[in-house]
Amino acid sequence: MQNPLVEAEDRDGIRILRLSRPPVNALNLELAQAVQRAVLEAEADAGCTGVVLTGLPGVFSAGIDTREVPAYDAETRATMLRTINRTILALYGLAKPVVGAISGHALGGAFVLVLACDVRLAARGPFRLGLTEAGAGIPFPAGPLAVVRAELAPAQVRVLAIGSQMAGPESEAFAGIVDRVVDAPELLDAAFEEVRRLRALPAFGRVKRQLRAATIERLAEIVERDDEPLLTHWV
């Protein structure tokens, strides 16, 4: 069923999931829940052979909604954290190819969604990417933290996460993290091409799960725990 916060469109068996909470796709509870549902629906649909995760023109997502989320009561905040952790598990563990098509600015938790994708493409432009948690005063939830540790080299963690550095997609800081930068009108076509390439690999899903097994197991443990310390110390 179509969710207005995450627009879903199928093309040639490839599902485009487009974050759609204008103006900047800030992540609140409703958007996080919508992303989780959309990823789980893509996983369950046999007709879906791959996913492209993207945002609005000029902005993938500005990250956590720093106006709304800090005002949540304790119960809503805990629900938000659990939803984030479950969404990351669903996305990172999806056996189908997932390509992140970074349509613009991608910051904080939104950039963690990008890190959870198999291939990361970015639109060329004056955009900023970054793990801004330290600068925003928001510690990492455990699920995103596990993906950051798994996907980034220690030097990248030091600069991007601890140092909260933001930079453009073509900068040296994102070399090896963003796989390719293309002109904005070509972004979706390039993403489809990558999904088709990956889904043609006979053992793609099995090898992906093999290589990510330890992190997926860690994410599953996080999701199963309701007593996680970060539930009471986040934002």
Question: Can you walk me through this structure?
Answer:
The chain is α/β, with parallel strands linked by helices and 235 residues long. The protein has one domain: 2-enoyl-CoA Hydratase, Chain A, domain 1 (Alpha-Beta Complex), CATH 3.90.226.10. It is built from eight helices and ten strands. It has helices at 29-44, 74-92, 109-115, 133-136, 142-151, 154-162, 187-199, 204-224; strands at 6-11, 14-19, 50-54, 58-61, 98-102, 104-107, 119-123, 129-130, 166-167, 180-182. The strands form two sheets. A six-stranded mixed β-sheet has the order 1-2-3-5-7-10, sandwiched between helices. α1 (29-44) runs parallel beside α2 (74-92) and α2 (74-92) runs parallel beside α5. It is globular, with a radius of gyration of 16 Å. The relative contact order is 0.15.
Output the keywords.
four-stranded mixed sheet; 2-enoyl-CoA Hydratase, Chain A, domain 1; 10 strands; 8 helices; six-stranded mixed sheet; 42% helix; alpha/beta; 235 residues
Query: What's the helix count?
Result: 8
Secondary-structure element string: EEHEEHEEHEEHHHEEHH
Please tell me the CATH architecture by its name.
Answer: Alpha-Beta Complex
Derived from helix and strand composition plus strand pairing, the structural class reads: alpha/beta
SSE arrangement:
Elements (H helix, E strand, L loop, with lengths): L5 E6 L2 E6 L9 H16 L5 E5 L3 E4 L12 H19 L5 E5 L1 E4 L1 H7 L3 E5 L5 E2 L2 H4 L5 H10 L2 H9 L3 E2 L12 E3 L4 H13 L4 H21 L11
Parallel strand pairs: 2-3, 3-5, 4-6, 5-7, 6-8, 7-10
Antiparallel strand pairs: 1-2, 8-9
